[in-house]
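Please predict the structure of the following assembly.
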Amino acid sequence: MIELKVNGRSHSVSADPDTPLLYVLRDDLQLNAAKFGCGLGQCGSCTVLVDGAPTLSCVTPIMLLEGRQITTLEGLGTLEDPGPLQRAFIEEQAAQCGYCIPGMMMRAQALLERNPHASDAEIRAQLEPNLCRCGTHMRILQAVRRAATLMAGPGPSPGTVVTHAPSAAGPQVDSSDAEADAREDARSRPAHSERRERPER
Amino acid sequence: MKTFVTRRVVIRLLWVLCFGAAGFVVYAWRSAIPPADLPSADSFDAETIRRGAQLAALGNCATCHTAPAGETFAGGRAVATPFGTIYSTNITPDLTTGIGRWSRAAFERAMREGVDREGAHLYPAFPYDHYTLLTDADSAALYAFMMTRQPVEGRTPDNHLPFPLNMRFILAGWKLLFFREGRYQPDTTHDAQWNRGAYLANGIGHCGACHTPRNSLGAEIRTRHFAGGEAEGWRAYAINSDSQSYEAWNADALHSFLREGWHEQHGDAHGPMAPVTHNLASAADSDVQAMAAYVASVMGKPAPGRHQDAATDPPSNDAGAAIYAATCASCHDGTRPLPFGGVKLTLSTAATGETPTNLIKVILDGLHPPEGTAGAIMPGFSSTLTDGQLESLVSYIRANFGARPPWTGVDTSVREARSRLSD
């Protein structure tokens, strides 16, 4: 058993120690915001925070994470009480298909926690590793700027991680309606399991 | 009586010192070369400019003389040295902030003697100790190319160097000790292609600026030519007979690596070598072939027994093995072809090389080809691997893939690489 601290809560996980964090988040903890994109650590859709630093959860085995603070998009707020970054993305309608958005948001969160007054150039540089194939890039940038303003105003400080029990807090915030469909789609898609390449043991 | 003698000796010593200092100032002094009018573009023939462009590619000029996201050749890139930070200068032909007022003689003096138009000594971060080898024709071609670039107005930041290194005249002393001015002298025991390669690699290509170790005053140690050095926090591997590459290099492999930034038996050029190979892709192919032939000849035959140093029975390292299996093996030990899989680490100089520096940097940072260029991609693991986990992993890779005796000071290298990461 490995103890994982996710969004402020401890979980005992029985998965193999070499299981990528992404699979544990989605399959065992039902935290479905982080997405399986390329599975190679190259697209950024699986980004979560480990001790505040953006981390590609699809290439990170859980054996490295004992005792570390893991934050997923679900940790930034709830449907009833979205965090500033989530409010900003909703207000700017910054998602099209939405698949890349949780990764974009986590990387943006890491930047704004470190640098609440990030410049446009810094925001672009920070988000550069994350790929989006739709085209809401300009809205994503606007949303991050808006989030910086919201975080600076009254309300929870940028670093606040809202802890909540998924069952008690109801459905979790996702970045768009379309995304829920995408998630459903990803679950039922047989290719999903085929793409789970693991080292031969 | 004794006091009197001592006083006399002290006074004499002071005189000697004064004369010495005055003599040094005279020795260090260089006259300014009067500002010239910018030569018009049609005063150069197209072939000369084209040749200059190829030389600039061979010399990797644009890499140092361009700031991140800045205009090409407009300077301003910070070059970290053990002595302080030096900013590259604007070498576009802008009349006020660039070299637009430099005559051909002023340009040639900078290239060959390390003195700018106003007469100030240049820091050897600008490798005039190599460029001094350039022929008149090549120097003229490079001048023609630079003077026909788009002028960009832009001042570059002042250097951050402590006293007395910020006094440029003391560089005359450095030059006296370490700098030999002079054109390339062919070695008649070798053929024309070898000589061409030696001229390019040691001259405009300035390979030794990174691949030759430097002494405590920052000068290349001539007796250890190509024995491996440092560049921007990276290890520049030995490219002489000390090369630790698993597969011995030859001229064909070097040519292909220098042109394409990649070779299947040797892996990928990264760190400061990546832009070098990117530039060499646009240099004249015969020139890159000549450099490859020369460097292969310097490397010679690999030392016998190079692969027999390996610990036949690597020390057990369960922690490192487990991290490798869970984190690295799915790409580096899998069946996926490139670019979806990684290079086999047995072939990687990162595992066989002289120091763990590059292996640690790549594991922490990953590989990210610059915008618009092709190259290997790897995610970095700085946010997840603790220093202890990284040390175990590096030791495991060294023992099992590098098959060489363990590195010393892995913990120090990890801390150094980590501190550079947060810069």
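Helices of chain A lie at 21-28, 84-91, 101-114, 120-127, 137-152, 177-188, 190-194. DSSP finds seven helices and five strands in chain A.
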